[in-house]
Structures are given as structure tokens and as C-alpha cells.
Amino acid sequence: TLTSYFVPQIHDLPIFGLPLANDWLWTLNPSPAYVGQGIIMGPATTLHMLLGAIVGWGILSPLAKRKGWASGPVDDWQSGSKGWIVWVSLAIMLADSIISLGWLVLRPLILHGPQWYFKTQESVRHGQIWSLLGLQHPQGGSYRALDSSEYSASHRLRSRSISQPKNRVDKDDIPEMDAPPAHLVPNRVVVGLLIVSVLFCVLAIRIIFGALVPFYAIFLAIILALLLSIMGVRAQGETDLNPVSGISKLTQLVFALIIPSSNPNAVTINLLAGAISESGALQAGDMMQDLKTGHLLGASPRAQFYGQMIGSAVGAVASAGVYKLYTSVYRVPGGLFQVPTGYVWIFTARLVTGKGLPQMAWQWALGAGLIFAVLTALRIRGQGRWWQACVPGGIAVAVGMYNTPSFTLARTTGGLVSWYWRWYRKREDTPVIVLASGLILGEGLVSILNLLLASMQVSHL
Length: 461
Known about the structure:
By secondary structure, the protein is mostly helical. The chain is built from 16 helices and no strands.
């Protein structure tokens, strides 16, 4: 990382030759952090990203250039093929998000719907409709016969109680307590701070953007953020992945249906709505992951909650200061910090509002979206089966498309290192995860030194 400051050419190594590097941006950025990220992602995800890079930068980019759909320089976001293929990647992300989040909602209904239906029907037939809401206490005078399984369980429990002293209770019979009541966060604190945070969000948007964003749009974005945060937390608990990018794209799609495209502020409103929902889902997922880790370690949820409040307040100020420091030294977006996600957000707003689509972009985007809607459904169908990893994931392919190959190749290298260690060598994960963490942390620390060197205008070699 330090060497890359004095020799910036390291960021773009022409490993496939100068023609491909200069004309089609096929270079390698040997960033330790990107390699570490690839190790953590694993081979399946990184190879899907590589597939996206091959399709986007190896097939679609030359095709768009040759057909005249993107006649500008390849690395130009507005008129070049770099900006043209983003539309295809956005359609893939939208299709994957809609199918994945839709299944997350429908799955409980499909799995438990018949049970809920028969339970409701039985309660209505016996006049116990209030029992569905948990408002009716069971009557102590009714008896019924025990089946064989219940009899065996009760017999084992009675035998154990006879063999043990009366004042002794088996620990397996005691339900696990989430946390002692004194260590829980009071509900009034949660509700009060929720109201304060909502009002602060509304006030901040009105101060910064004024009347460009109406009140109803802000409150609708917050309501969607609350609902989608639940989906994000549930998805993270089941898959260890928080689909924040899909959540934001889904919100942008909803606002495209609500805000007419004739509104001059439609793109701005769309961007803010997506930002509110993604930030809400992201913070909810991070907090729940922290609380789960604390629960496993026996930490106090109240102490963690107040620690998160302090960290959030300090982090908001510190991150803004670091951002201003970086923008004062580097050009953002620029060659070193391209910020492709920023363009993805803008292009998504233009896509869903029907503005600014280049020639033939919507046809290819529609086709790619339909293909990956089917592939995403196939991946859902194959959960837990060996062949699921062979079906390309929409988000991974889309990320490989809108990022230049230099980033994807580095992450793929990390994914192959992970495959070699875990599957070929059949070794445990801990050493390679520690290696990846060291690569990411090391580059993060040394990048601060690079920032200081750049601020002091130390010359390159």
C-alpha cells in the first residue's frame, strides 16, 4: 500500500497486455484489502463477480462501442460503455432484489399459511377467536387424552423428578433467558428515541433540501425503512447477508411509482428515499449483529445500546471530518476513488423514472432482468443443495459489471486463495480469515499515512 503511493502505476497493472488495458480497462489492482475481501467472500461469490466482469467488460462493452450505442471513451460514465453497461447491471440488481425480497415475504406464508388457516378455522368453529390474539386464558377444568409421545415425555419428566431432589431442577428444563430485566433497554427509551430520530431525520432533510422533498415523501420513506429493516434483519439472521442494496433499489422502485416522472425533483426524491431505507436497514442489521454477539458473550444489552449511541454520535462527526479531509486532498470521484456506487444510485433513479437512458439500454436491461429473475428463483429453489453455487447470483454479477475489472480480478484472486486453503488443502477457516483481516486492516492503516503524504504534497517516483 505504501509502495503504491510512490509508484501509482501499481493500481493498474496491464496483466493482459497494453491494448486491453488502454482500450478496454482490463487491468489488475493488487490491493491487499481487495484480496482480503475476496478471501472473506469466498470463491463462489468472487467467481460470479468475475463472470459479470467478463460479460460486461469483455462482451457488452465492446459490443456497445462497436454498435455506436456508447460512442464516447470507454471509461466515460455519460457517453462511454462504462456508463452503458451500468444500466444492464442495475436491471440485474433490481430483478434479484424483487425476487429475493419477495420470497422473504412469501416464504412464511407458504410454509405456515395452511397451519394458520386451519388454526383460525378451528378457533372460529369453537368460538375462540380471541385465542388467536393470545387474549384468552386456557381453562383449567378441561382434560383430554395424552397421545403416546406426550405420555413418554411426561413419564420421563416424572421419573427424573423422582430421582432428583425436589429443590433441584434440571437446567435443560429452564428456558433460556434473553437477559435479566435490569439489563434490558426500557421500551419507553426505545419509543422515545425512535420518535426523536424520526423528527431529526425530517428536520435534517428539510434544512438541507428545503421544499424540494415534500413531507409526505419523507415520512413514506421512513415507514418503508422501518418495514424493510425488519426484512433486512430477518435475511441477515437466516443467511448472514443483509440485502441493503436490494432494499434501497426496491424503495427507489416504489417511489418511481408514487412520484410522477414529470416532477422536476423526481430523481432527487428517489435518491433520498433509497438512502433513508438503505441506511435504516444497514444500521438495523449492524446493531442486531452486535447484540447477537453480545448475547453469546453474556454482555448487557443496555450497555451495548448506550455504547452504540455514543459510537454513532462520535462516528457521524468523525466520518464527516475524514470525508472532508479526503476530498481536500484527492479528487472524488477520480482515478483513485471512482465511487462507482454513487453513479449506480444516480443511474437507478434515472432508470426507474425513465430519464437519461442511452440507446438500446432498456432493451438489454429488460432482457438481463428477466434472465436473472429466473436464475434468482432457481437459486432460491436450490438452497442447501450442491448445485446452488453454480447458479450465478444477481448481485455478485451486477457488482462485477459496474466495477472495473481491476477491482474484480483482485477479489477473485482472494476467492481462489480461500478455495485453495479451505477446499483443496481442507484446512480450517481461522488462519485464512485472520490473514484476510490483516490485509484489510493493514491497508486501512497505511492509507492514512498515504493521505498524510498526499496532504504534504510528497512527490511520486
